[in-house]
Design a protein that fits this description.
The complex is a heterodimer of chains A (234) and B (311).
Chain A lengths: L4 E5 L3 H13 L3 E5 L2 H10 L4 E5 L7 H9 L6 E6 L3 H10 L3 E5 L3 H19 L9 E4 L2 E4 L4 E4 L2 E3 L3 H12 L4 E3 H9 L7 H15 L9 E4 L3 E4 L4
Parallel strand pairs in A: 1-2, 1-3, 3-4, 4-5
Antiparallel strand pairs in A: 6-7, 7-8, 8-9, 10-12, 11-12
Chain B lengths: L1 H6 L4 H18 L13 H66 L5 H31 L9 E4 H15 L4 E5 L6 E4 L1 H17 L5 E9 L2 E8 L6 H4 L7 H9 L10 H11 L3 E6 L5 E8 L9
Helix pairs in contact in B: 2-3, 3-4, 4-9, 5-6, 6-9
């Protein structure tokens, strides 16, 4: 079994060693970098499968690394940042980062997001035969992409066209956060009217249809200020 | 003229208003009506009186306003000083505990049973989590500097704020049952989401630590153009003598807490911070004891604009 190679870019030694230990303990190969330059050098010289990147690096903006890497690669990038810097997270996600972790994060969350990001990139690298199936299943929710059918615990749920569109794209990227921006572009194209209000209304309607309690959703989680995330597929 | 003095800065507007009303009175109300006539006897005296009244009036309101400014400033200084004091106390204790636990593990770890080791580490984690929450509270304040002007508000769905707060809360208090009730309609508010999350977390935590609640019910409701959030618990309720000062930072209360042997995780800065945040959002906050036992803490925020969409 080929072990995945992860690059951890974090200037704080304490935080870095915690991440590295947790990842190695889970069987991953891990490379480390303290600065942006060091990281970029490793990215271009080693076969990295995932980058865990702190946005507060000393020599260059983590954002810059994302931009440079995205110029030539779809390599998954997981950004790490402080709780109050949501603007940084949104920017990173919109520029191509796949997901984020907020400090302080537990080992469980780190490993879960790592797994999801790697899994997704594996799917993309694979043959077209092993592409996503026609039906999405997660904890009682099923979405049939072809027949445009949604059921929750066996019961049919009627969604409008837009609502189905939203739930489909979230399912396609299940486990990963999608920003408001991304979702709106998906619904209305790049010239959308920069208004998250409508999206939220759709989401409220969707939740009232598929969630037992829309206030404590099981399927579609809110990352307030950033976007939405669908639970991972079974 | 008094009205104008109150709402304007400085002396000038008050004076102008006074003079203007003087002329107005002359023009409209004195014989011959609707003409300006200054030849009546006693007029200079009237004029002088008007001027004196306006000077005195302007001066008084200005002094009052300065006084108010000083008072608000001193209130702010007072709050800051109290916060720092609370900070000092509240940071030191968990840090002592963490340091002590770590030292013990290093020195005697091998002799200890697995269970004991785990207990110590568990303790370290809990204290660290507590510290983290405390720091978040403090950072909340820096996020808007205590003043409404610096607040960056964005539209958010009230039910989503609830959902995220509950999810976060259950990570730390998994044994507490939390229920949420939201209406059919989507309620929107314009807020700094992170700060409101902080408020909700503080209120939930309060219900558990001080109210000793095992179950908390959260509700949101639209009431007269305000979205009201209710945090109701099934705990021991709030002490009546504290109700009035619940959201104020009374150092005296903290001292009593310590004497009663109550945990040092006191009411301290949590509730006053909630109040500061809610007030900065133009809302209100309050608390009362429920007739069924337990406490209800609530806060209201101005409702966001109506939602309307076509599919």
């Amino acid at each position: 079994m080929i072990k995945n190679e992860i690059l951890v870019v974090e200037d704080d030694k304490g935080v870095r060693s915690l991440i590295v230990m947790a990842l190695r303990g889970s069987g991953y190969k891990v490379l480390e970098a303290e600065t942006g330059e060091e990281a970029y050098r490793l990215i271009t010289s080693e076969a990295i499968d995932l980058i865990i990147l702190d946005l507060g690096l000393p020599d260059m903006d983590g954002i810059e690394i994302i931009q440079r890497v995205r110029e030539w690669s779809h390599l998954p990038i997981l950004v790490v940042s402080a709780r109050t810097h949501e603007q940084d997270k949104i920017e990173a996600l919109d520029l191509g980062a796949d997901d984020y972790l907020t400090k302080p994060f537990g080992t469980g969350e780190l490993l879960a997001r790592t797994r999801t990001s790697l899994r997704r990139s594996q799917l993309m690298k694979g043959d077209f035969d092993t592409q996503q199936s026609d039906v999405f299943k997660a904890s009682g929710l099923t979405i049939d992409y072809i027949r445009h059918k949604v059921t929750v615990d066996g019961k049919d749920v009627h969604l409008t066209q837009k609502e189905f569109r939203i739930i489909s794209v979230l399912a396609k990227y299940s486990g990963r956060v999608l920003t408001y921006d991304y979702l709106m572009k998906n619904l209305w194209g790049p010239e959308y009217n920069n208004d998250t209000q409508t999206l939220r209304v759709y989401m409220a309607h969707i939740r009232r249809k598929i969630e037992k309690n829309p206030a404590t959703p099981k399927y579609i989680m809110t990352e307030v200020g950033i976007g939405y995330r669908m639970i991972e597929e079974d | 003229m008094l009205l104008i003095s109150c709402v304007t800065q400085g002396y000038l507007y008050g004076m102008i208003a006074s003079i203007a009303s003087f002329f107005a009175v002359n023009y409209f109300f004195t014989f011959p009506y609707y003409t300006l006539n200054f030849s009546l006897i006693g007029y200079p005296l009237t004029f002088a009186t008007f001027i004196i009244v306006s000077i005195v009036g302007s001066t008084m309101t200005n002094i009052l306003k300065e006084g108010e400014k000083i008072r608000t400033q001193s209130e702010q200084d007072h709050l800051r000083a109290n916060l720092l004091r609370a900070l000092g106390h509240d940071l030191r204790t968990p840090l002592t505990s963490i340091s002590g636990s770590a030292s013990l593990l290093l020195e005697q770890g091998e002799k200890m049973s697995r269970q004991d080791q785990e207990n110590l580490l568990q303790n370290v984690r809990e204290e660290a989590d507590w510290l983290m929450r405390m720091v978040e509270n403090l950072l909340s304040i820096t996020r808007f500097g205590g003043g409404a002007e610096n607040l960056i508000k964005k539209p958010a769905a009230a039910e989503e704020l609830l959902g995220e707060a509950i999810e976060n809360f259950q990570k730390y208090y998994s044994s507490v049952e939390v229920n949420a009730h939201v209406p059919e309609d989507l309620l929107m508010v314009d807020v700094d989401a992170m700060l409101i999350e902080q408020v909700l977390f503080n209120l939930l935590q309060n219900a558990v630590i001080h109210g000793k609640a095992k179950r908390i019910d959260l509700k949101i409701q639209l009431k007269k153009k305000q979205v009201v959030f209710y945090v109701q618990d099934n705990g021991i309720g709030l002490p009546n003598e504290r109700l009035e000062y619940l959201f104020e930072d009374k150092l005296a209360d903290k001292m009593t807490d310590r004497k009663n042997g109550e945990q040092r995780h006191n009411l301290g800065i949590g509730l006053p911070i909630c109040r500061a945040i809610i007030m900065a959002h133009g809302g209100q906050i309050g608390a009362y004891n429920s007739p069924n036992g337990g406490a209800v803490l609530w806060f209201a925020l101005p409702a966001g604009r109506e939602n309307d969409y076509n599919d």
